[in-house]
Amino acid sequence: MIANFKSPKEIKRYDRSKSIILKTGNTLIDKTILGLDLGQVSIVSGINGSGKSSWLNQVALDVIMQGYGVGIFSGELTDWRLMNWLYLQSAGKNNVSIGKDKDGNEFYYVKDNIKDKIDVWLDNKLYIYDNNTGVDIDTVGRNVQKLLIENKDIKLIIIDNLMSMDINKSGSDKYEAQKQVILKLTTLAKKLNVHIIFVCHPVKCKDFIRKEDISGSSDLANAVDNIFLVHRTTQDFKKRSMEFFGWSNTHPIYNYDNVIEIAKNRELGNIEKLCGMYFEPQTKRFLNEKEEYKHYGWEDNNQEQQLMEIENLDVSDIF
């Protein structure tokens, strides 16, 4: 090495075929970009109600199914609300029940005996940030770093969302603070070989957002490796997308309930690839096919046996 420069033979070769790549569970996304590379950072954006959190929760479950741990920071949901969401997605429509609130409105829920099995499956695999420990940017960043150092099995961190963090303590402009935290966590992702996903809201509320609409400076988009835009196929989305892409109103993408657009992919250069998914309201699952039914690990016989052993444990043997 001369003056901090390397010659080609001094650079370690990278064989992507032998690297860990986290599958998202969306067939078309995983085919187009292969998945989420470790050591990289992604941004997910979309208007309210587009399905950002639903999709990312499901990505988390799919990553856990691949044998890796996941950490989630949710600044908008309490931990128990987030878990109720994850219980529905983990359970599947064959394992959810219908209840009624005090006004007679129906809702879907998961019974406690199934929640117990899901808890056993997710134990030591899913970690949800405790907002009571502080939600300012620096505190969240330090705790994420501590979690990753203490648990080497964690390969995915989801920050949902960047704007829900308290940036007042940073002592700088909010966009500058956002840029700094992304730059720091980009460095952390590379150093600890994990993938980090940020949810960033668009600055303008419109149904067909572009990556330029993401809240914050252009530095955010430049700093990350992937940008995913989550759309809901409303009439306004159809109108604007037809204008933008020149599609007809019979384009097959409009058969889907939601669309995830790959707006940036640094590794392979794939952009403006729209990946459709169906939405299942009973479970908040995104489906590749209308009849898709995914079985998660809690339904394993081994998991059931593990739960039985815990339930039958004689507490007199502990002390």
Describe this structure in words.
With 319 residues, the protein is of the alpha/beta class. Helix content is 33%, strand content 20%. The protein contains nine helices and 13 strands. The strands form three sheets. A nine-stranded mixed sheet has the order 7-4-8-9-3-10-11-12-13, sandwiched between helices. A two-stranded antiparallel sheet has the order 1-2. Strand 11 and strand 12 form a beta hairpin. The radius of gyration is 21 Å and the shape is globular. The N and C termini lie far apart (59 Å). Mean pLDDT is 86; it is low at 313-319.
Furnish the topology, listing elements before pairings.
Layout: E1 21-22, H1 27-33, E2 36-37, E3 41-45, H2 52-65, E4 69-74, H3 79-91, E5 97-100, E6 106-109, H4 112-122, E7 126-128, H5 137-150, E8 154-160, H6 174-192, E9 195-199, H7 218-223, E10 226-232, H8 235-245, E11 258-265, E12 273-280, E13 285-287, H9 301-311
Parallel strand pairs: 3-9, 3-10, 4-7, 4-8, 8-9
Antiparallel strand pairs: 1-2, 5-6, 10-11, 11-12, 12-13
Helix pairs in contact: 2-3, 4-9, 5-6
Highlighted features:
globular; 319 residues; alpha/beta; 13 strands; disordered C terminus
Radius of gyration: 21 Å
Strand content: 15-25%
How many extended strands? 13
Number of helices: 9
The largest sheet has its strands arranged as 7-4-8-9-3-10-11-12-13
Mean pLDDT: 86
- Principal-axes shape call: globular
Major pleated sheet: 9 strands, mixed
Structural class, from helix and strand content?
A: alpha/beta
Q: Estimate percent helicity.
A: 25-40%
Give the distance, in angstroms, between the N- and C-terminal Cα atoms. Answer: 59 Å
List low-pLDDT spans: 313-319
